[in-house]
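Is this the right way to post structure tokens for a design question? Let me know if I should format differently. Anyway, here goes:
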């Protein structure tokens, strides 16, 4: 609590994911905010001469039947850290969610193909004014809130994320790599907007949570027999 909110500038292009030499499971490295490399007080900002595609993120794509390594379960202390730091974020859930989606769509425009309401929007300011984008931002943040509130109940978390994964695989046909990218963007936004709360230790714990989220979502894709689409990652 007491964390000040300084919403990110949506025009800054930040690369998501990197190969790190830290002592983490390899499956978590692509989620790790680059602030952990440069120090908790400053994120590494890089402007690219071209727009990055999801294939540039962590050097991985999800092949048919492939799943990341499952992370260790959260400890009681880690669950408490997540819930304590989530409170100030959720108080500003719509603005934070909009910032996340704007960065996501600006840096990875191919993700917009799944959203007919704003897939033709290129201007971040226009995205910010979009009622549909704000509605989806609230849904994303609401889903995270459900996970955070039920960290004491792993079965509930698993069932919620399974529903999310299956809906996106069967109904929306979203490639699972976009969940990986979105997890990375969420971590970057939280560490930038709430620097007092999201210290290096806290970021490590949230990285572990996002790794678990991605693991459950990809599990749902595997269960429905997901077949990777080759064209939408371009």
């Amino acid at each position: 609590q007491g964390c000040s909110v300084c919403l990110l500038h949506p025009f800054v292009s930040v690369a998501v994911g990197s190969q790190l030499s830290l002592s983490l499971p390899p499956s978590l490295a692509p989620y790790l905010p680059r602030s952990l490399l440069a120090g908790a007080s400053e994120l590494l900002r890089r402007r690219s001469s071209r727009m990055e595609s999801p294939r540039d993120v962590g050097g991985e794509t999800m092949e048919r039947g492939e799943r990341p390594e499952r992370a260790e379960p959260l400890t009681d202390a880690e669950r408490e850290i997540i819930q304590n730091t989530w409170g100030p974020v959720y108080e500003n859930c719509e603005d934070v969610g909009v910032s996340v989606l704007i960065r996501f769509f600006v840096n990875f425009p191919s993700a917009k193909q799944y959203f007919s309401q704003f897939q033709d929007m290129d201007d971040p300011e226009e995205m910010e004014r979009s009622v549909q984008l704000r509605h989806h931002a609230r849904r994303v943040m609401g889903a995270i809130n459900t996970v955070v509130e039920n960290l004491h109940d792993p079965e509930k978390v698993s069932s919620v994320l399974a529903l999310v994964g299956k809906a996106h695989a069967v109904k929306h046909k979203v490639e699972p790599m976009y969940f990986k990218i979105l997890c990375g963007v969420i971590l970057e936004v939280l560490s930038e907007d709430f620097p007092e709360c999201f210290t290096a230790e806290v970021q490590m714990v949230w990285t572990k949570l996002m790794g678990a989220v991605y693991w459950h979502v990809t599990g749902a894709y595997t269960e429905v027999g997901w077949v990777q689409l080759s064209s939408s990652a371009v």
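Format looks fine. Someone answered above. Worth noting: The helical segments are 35-38, 76-90, 93-107, 124-129, 131-149, 154-171, 177-193, 200-223. The radius of gyration is 16 Å.
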